[in-house]
Structure formats: C-alpha cells, structure tokens
C-alpha cells in the first residue's frame, strides 16, 4: 500500500531512540523527509546519521520542546532545511513513577512539561503552516496508561491530556484539511523500559494481561503512526488507536 507521504516533511519529537527513532525510520522509509528532534544530542545525531546511511532523508535538530524559543527555532530550521512541514509526531516523554504521597512537584512538572506543554508548544508553532497549505497530520503518542496506572498519576494525566488535546484540535482544524489523532501504546520493549530494575516483572505481567502473547515492539507503534500520517487516513480524526496487544484496562 502506497501511503502517499513521499516528499512530505515530518518532525518527530523525542526521536533519538525507542518509539521515536522507529517512527522516524518508518516515515523516512515511506519517502518522508524526517527531522529527528531530541535533547540527547549525540544519540539524536547518530539516529539521523544511521537513517542517511540507509539512503533516507533525515536531519537532526537538538531543541528543548519545553521552551517556546527553541520550539520556534526547531520549526524554522525544519522549513529552512527541508522546505516545509506537513507531519508532526508528538512523541517526547518519560516517566517519573512514584506513589502520589511520594511524588514531588518536580516529578509532576517535568512529566507535564515535556509531554503536555511540549506537545502544545510544537503543535502551536507548526499549525499556522499546516493551515496555510491546507494539509497536515498531527499524531500524539499517548499510552494505555491514560486509563490509569498506580504510581503514574503524573504520566497517566499527561497521556490522557494528549488525547483531550487531540480531540479538541481535530474539531478546530479539520476544516483546513488537518487531522489530529493519537496512538496509545501498551507494553513496548524499548531501551528505556529494558533499563528498569523491574523490567522482567513488568514484562511478565503485561504478557499475562494481553490477549496477544508477545511484547510490543517500537515498529508496531511506528506502523500505526505511518498509517495515520498518510493520505489513506484522511477521514480519520480525533481518534485513539490502541496498540496494546488487545489490552485496554
């Protein structure tokens, strides 16, 4: 199936590694020109270089998406380098898991700042260009955690917020040929997850609770994102695609 995104320009935040890197690669394989964005300069540069070594079009821009000035630089440099922007994947995020009574204000603010404020700032900076050209795709990477997880009040709230934001923007921007959707991953085996001390316990529990008895892979999420970014998904907006192996609650 031709997704018809060849030549489109995509920004993928938090794409130095994991789901973001897999998404950048998948979009580039479909012919998109991809911006690898992260604050991890060395890893982001290596990811972009690896894509170019595969004959794909990729460029690294290191920028902190919690700062409006850096976000504007990210968008301006994207346009200067690739000539425009058409697709935005709001992927950047990380957990700071603790029970609420032990969760600090910093734990809350860091998670909200990157995932929710960051998505707001980048989407706001990109949107005028999408409106002007009459075509755009915004995909927020939410999580099955939007249903709620213990020790993840901050993370669950941020991921639920990304869904609410997507639904609101789908209504606002649909008239301009712009769709806004979410992908909600379940248990995905990434470097960050594998580094957790409780990784094996979390993995075993997740597989037990999933109808599909295998771990999720970053490529599973990347495939869903690529479809939502495509012409084939032009009549889908305001939706949440759960990529969870059938697990919801």
From TrEMBL:
PROSITE patterns according to UniProt: ADH_SHORT (PS00061)
Which is one GO molecular function term here?
A: 3-oxoacyl-[acyl-carrier-protein] reductase (NADPH) activity
SUPFAM superfamilies according to UniProt: NAD(P)-binding Rossmann-fold domains (SSF51735)
What GO terms describe the biological role, i.e. biological process, of this protein? monocarboxylic acid metabolic process
- The reply on keyword Oxidoreductase is yes
Coiled-coil residues are none
Q: According to its UniProt entry, what is the function of this protein? A: Catalyzes the NADPH-dependent reduction of beta-ketoacyl-ACP substrates to beta-hydroxyacyl-ACP products, the first reductive step in the elongation cycle of fatty acid biosynthesis.
PANTHER family given in the database record = 3-OXOACYL-(ACYL-CARRIER-PROTEIN) REDUCTASE (PTHR42879), 3-OXOACYL-[ACYL-CARRIER-PROTEIN] REDUCTASE FABG (PTHR42879:SF2)
Protein name per UniProt: 3-oxoacyl-[acyl-carrier-protein] reductase FabG
């Amino acid at each position: 199936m031709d997704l018809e995104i060849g030549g489109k320009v995509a920004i993928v935040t938090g794409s130095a590694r994991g789901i973001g890197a897999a998404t950048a690669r998948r979009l580039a394989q479909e012919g998109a020109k991809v911006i690898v964005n992260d604050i991890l300069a060395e890893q982001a540069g290596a990811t972009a270089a690896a894509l170019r070594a595969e004959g794909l079009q990729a460029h690294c821009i290191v920028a902190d998406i919690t700062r409006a000035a850096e976000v504007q630089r990210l968008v301006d440099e994207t346009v200067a380098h690739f000539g425009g922007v058409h697709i935005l994947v709001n992927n950047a995020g990380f957990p700071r898991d603790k029970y609420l009574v032990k969760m600090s204000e910093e734990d809350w603010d860091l998670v909200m700042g990157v995932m929710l404020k960051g998505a707001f700032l980048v989407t706001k900076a990109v949107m005028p260009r999408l409106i002007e050209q009459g075509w755009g795709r915004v995909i927020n990477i939410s999580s099955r955690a939007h249903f709620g997880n213990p020790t993840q009040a901050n993370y669950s709230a941020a991921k639920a917020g990304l869904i609410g934001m997507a639904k609101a923007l789908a209504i606002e921007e649909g008239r301009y040929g712009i769709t806004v959707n979410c992908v909600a991953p379940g248990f995905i085996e990434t470097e960050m997850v594998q580094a957790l001390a409780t990784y094996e316990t979390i993995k075993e529990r997740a597989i037990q609770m999933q109808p599909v008895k295998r771990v999720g892979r970053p490529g599973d999420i990347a495939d869903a994102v690529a479809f939502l970014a495509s012409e084939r998904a032009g009549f889908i907006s305001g939706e949440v695609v759960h990529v969870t192996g059938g697990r919801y609650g």
